[in-house]
Specification:
This protein is α/β, with parallel strands linked by helices and about 400 residues long. It has two domains: about 180 residues, Rossmann fold (3-Layer(aba) Sandwich), CATH 3.40.50; about 200 residues, Dehydroquinate synthase-like, alpha domain (Up-down Bundle), CATH 1.20.1090. Helices cover about 50% and strands about 10% of the residues. The chain has a six-stranded parallel sheet with strand order 1-10-7-6-2-3, sandwiched between helices. The protein has a two-stranded antiparallel ribbon with strand order 4-5. A two-stranded antiparallel sheet has the order 8-9. α7 packs antiparallel against α8, α8 packs antiparallel against α10 and α12 packs antiparallel against α14. The model has no long low-confidence stretch (mean pLDDT about 90).
């Protein structure tokens, strides 16, 4: 392929709006003709959301013997857990469902994707670790996110942890592009405040990181800026009014568009570091993404990268043509830091890091060197030392 050509891809169908979850039963029956339904649902969401209780009740009413799994783990799913749960949805090599619905955060939806693969592929889950090829087509997945952050409702990636080897790779196959995503702002209105903030700020950083990636293109950058605009200018409204469904939906679309941008550029260092903090310290991925990202943005500007100035007009809504790119970058970063400080998310709180942890992250830098190549500034060893100190500051 001509190296000068750019590619852009979206493989997604969405229904959205307040109470869109209520319409899903008819869509499943009339549009897709599914008859045997499996559901993975986050237990805390089910417990705290009247809408999800009603939805599960309707599933039971409209479909014969649906298979339900309530996700109760406090961490992301492991390959071992995946291998255990898959037998609820298949008997020997025969599928017991023709569609699986994932409802909740990234973990519930990723688990649904993993099961969709293993229903039709019969080796242990670790055999499909990474990016498997030449495998049987998965059963269809419907993704219903309860946070505005992971973007898993758009992506085919599904994250799983290998506890034995302390790895976090997943099962990533284009067979698992969700057949349908449902963005219902009512589901986010009951999310815990910290979950909502961490996931949204993680998506905000993703929108910035994908914009400045050397592998971004004109179209992906357009989605990055739309994503940033929607998240930055709606998050405070949502925190102040959890019944502002219009602003919540804007947050959901912001997270969605940030994943569109990521899918058409590539993951940078903040995304890689979020995996490190999640795997080693059980820090929520959104929080890991946001804290890593804001520190990287600050360091990049300090080292002479001023491309962040392109975001300045999105937060000021004015065209400051007389401002230099350097000044606009500085003012943008100042506003971004102020936002993160407002939510006490400039650094990790309540995590006891030590010198061994700093050594461990320095080793991790070498493992994810490719992700750092997607940063607009190429770090020297002294720059990585500065980044480490900022991430592990007491």
């Amino acid at each position: 392929m001509n190296q000068n050509l750019s590619k852009f891809e979206i493989n997604s169908r969405v229904i959205f709006g307040k109470n869109s979850l209520k319409e899903l039963i008819e869509v499943i029956k009339n549009d897709f003709k599914f008859k045997h339904i499996g559901v993975i649902i986050d237990y805390n969401l089910y417990k705290n959301s009247k809408e999800t209780k009603v939805f599960i009740h309707k599933i039971k009413e409209n479909f014969t013997k649906p298979i339900l799994v309530y996700y109760k783990l406090k961490h992301e799913p492991t390959y071992e857990y995946l291998d255990k749960i898959k037998f609820k949805f298949k008997k020997n090599k025969t599928s017991l469902v023709d569609c699986i619905i994932g409802i909740g955060g990234g973990s519930s939806i990723d688990l649904a994707k993993g099961i969709a693969t293993l229903i039709k592929n019969h080796l242990p889950s670790k055999k499909y670790m990474g990016f498997p090829t030449n495998i049987n087509k998965s059963i269809p997945v419907i993704a219903i996110p309860s946070t505005a952050g992971t973007g898993t409702e758009l992506a085919y990636n599904a994250v799983f942890i290998d506890k034995k080897n302390n790895l976090k790779l997943g099962i990533n196959t284009k067979n698992n592009y969700p057949l349908l995503a449902v963005l219902d702002p009512i589901l986010l209105s009951t999310s815990p405040k910290t979950v909502l903030i961490n996931s949204a700020l993680g998506a905000l950083i993703r929108s910035v990181e994908t914009y400045v990636s050397p592998k971004a293109n004109t179209i992906s950058r357009m989605y990055s800026k739309i994503a940033f605009d929607l998240i930055y200018n709606n998050l405070i409204k949502v925190i102040n009014n959890r019944k502002d469904f219009s602003s919540i939906l804007n947050l959901q679309w912001g997270a969605y568009y940030s994943m569109v941008a990521l899918s058409n550029s590539t993951s940078g260092p903040a995304g890689a570091l979020s995996y490190f903090f999640s795997l080693n310290f059980s820090i929520p991925q959104g929080l890991g993404y946001s804290v890593s990202g804001i520190n990287i943005i600050n360091l990049n500007h300090r080292l002479g990268f001023f491309g962040y100035g392109d975001f300045y007009n999105l937060i000021k809504k004015n065209n400051f043509k007389k401002h230099s790119q350097k000044l606009k970058s500085k003012l943008f970063i100042r506003s971004l830091n102020r936002l993160f400080k407002l939510y006490n998310t400039l650094e990790f709180k309540n995590f006891n890091f030590n010198t061994k942890d700093e050594i461990k992250i320095n080793e991790f830098y070498k493992v994810v060197e490719a992700a750092f190549q997607n940063n607009p500034m190429q770090y020297k060893e002294k720059d990585l030392t500065i980044l480490t100190k900022s991430l592990f500051k007491k």
